[in-house]
Amino acid sequence: MLPAKYPVSSGANLSHVHPLFHFHLQIFGGLVWILVASSRVSVPILQGWVMFVSVFCFVMSTTLLCLYSCGAHGGSSSWVTLDIICQETAALFYLSAAVLEAYFTYSVSTLTDPVVTTIYRENIAAVVFAFVATLLYVIHKVCSLLRWKSS
Description:
- By secondary structure, the chain is mainly alpha-helical.
- It has helices at 11-14, 23-38, 44-70, 77-108, 114-150.
- The protein is elongated.
- Residues 1-19 have low confidence and may be disordered.
- It is a multi-pass membrane protein.
- Keywords: Lipoprotein, Membrane, Transmembrane, Transmembrane helix.
- It comes from Accipiter nisus (Eurasian sparrowhawk).
- The chain crosses the membrane at residues 20-37, 49-68, 80-104, 124-146.
């Protein structure tokens, strides 16, 4: 049974009713992390930024998930503000990482070497999951903004 301080009447509150609703952020963030780590990028600074974004957002989302599941927020509205700031930061970071990864993938697409083709396929998967992670963070941020507005 859900506690009374988390009403389920609004769809905006549903994303914070149970910590498992945050789990999709870890899944897609982890997939981006794994795919970028396994791919070989000729521009180290690009791969470094994408890895930083993936690891940072994964750790940040996991920390928030643990804090919410432990009940550390106590129903305080300042936690909603913290959640909005974290989700906005993650969405912007993932958007920048996805665009950089897509640019590199596009620049590699003109080469015909079989080894490059494997790298190209891994990078395509990383780009797709990076954009999906960006979309999920934006959706989560909108739900958090609706929750913040209602509190």
